[in-house]
Specification:
Length: 297
């Protein structure tokens, strides 16, 4: 039996170390292959960006676009009358109405058809044989000498053309209901007041832009059941509130002194005029106010 030498011992130790490393490496690989692997969490699905919808702020109505009515014109004249009677200027809110749109219906012929020889400026009659409805509407013409236009601020030669507003104490645009006599039997006679409120277009001394009193007249076919009766007809005026000779939307005068109810004329710029029949709801004729040279229709 050989005695172990130093060389042999070193060889044995080196071999054992190699075997240990080989066994350890194999065990590590076997353990790694059999141990449960960590599974990476799935990537989160991309979330689509939700667009932010900005709700538009509702626009407030433009009060200047509101069409002024009979009630607005009566209120304008009332403020002008108060300003005249009290010696104050027209309130700014009333003066600012210049340029705003308006629409007005003037009833006429409320007492029924007129006679064939009538000279009433606003009238209608029905031809039974021809089944024709004949309508005649003549504007009123005021000159600078007319009491309704006299006073400070009225230019010499001023001419205005328009229509009186009947019964300016009511906003109703229809004929009044039929009534009996206004005064009881035996009472003193009732003195009817004159007209106190009108709408008119103002022009220079030559009457430029006006019809010179030329009437609006039309004849239309109508069945007997379409005859207006006590509902009369309506003259429809549309346009804008304008300015008088002194650049105010309304002119008021008191020709007989401070005890007289003021006579007021609202200045307007007409776009068109029409005749309406409330019995049928139909428009009988329309005229363009800015093209008065066209034939009536």
């Amino acid at each position: 039996m050989k005695e172990p030498t130093l060389r042999n011992s070193r060889l044995v130790l080196a071999g054992g170390l190699v075997i240990a490393l080989a066994v350890g490496g194999a065990g590590f690989l076997i353990g790694r292959g059999t141990s449960p692997r960590e599974v990476a969490p799935p990537a989160a699905a991309p979330v689509a960006a939700v667009p932010v919808v900005v709700q538009p702020t509702p626009a407030l109505p433009d009060r200047g676009d509101i069409v002024k009515s009979r009630a607005d014109l009566i209120a304008l004249a009332s403020q002008a009358s108060d300003a005249l009677a009290s010696g104050r200027p027209l309130p700014k809110a009333a003066a600012d109405l210049a340029g705003q749109r308006f629409e007005l219906q003037l009833p006429f012929g409320c007492r029924g058809p007129s006679d064939a020889d009538s000279d009433s400026p606003m009238r209608w009659r029905y031809d039974v044989e021809a089944k024709a409805l004949r309508v005649h509407v003549a504007p009123v013409v005021w000159s600078g000498a007319d009491p309704a236009l006299t006073g400070d601020g009225t230019a010499t030669g001023t001419i205005a053309e328009g229509f009186w507003i009947p019964r300016p104490w009511t906003v109703s645009e229809t004929c009044p209901p039929a009534q009996d006599s206004a005064a009881p039997t035996g009472a003193d006679a009732v003195t009817l007041p004159g007209q106190t409120l009108a709408v008119a277009q103002f022009a220079d001394g030559a009457g430029q832009g006006l019809r010179d009193g030329k009437p609006y007249a039309t004849v239309v076919r109508a069945a007997p059941e379409e005859v207006p009766g006590n509902q009369g007809l309506q003259l429809r005026l549309r346009g804008r509130i304008g300015g008088t000779a002194d650049r105010s939307p309304v002119s008021c005068r008191q020709p007989a002194g401070p005890e007289q109810r003021p006579i007021c004329i609202v200045a307007v710029m007409l776009d068109d005029l029409a005749i309406n029949n409330p019995q049928t709801g139909k428009t009988l004729a329309t005229w363009s106010a800015d093209r008065t040279s066209l034939p009536d229709r």
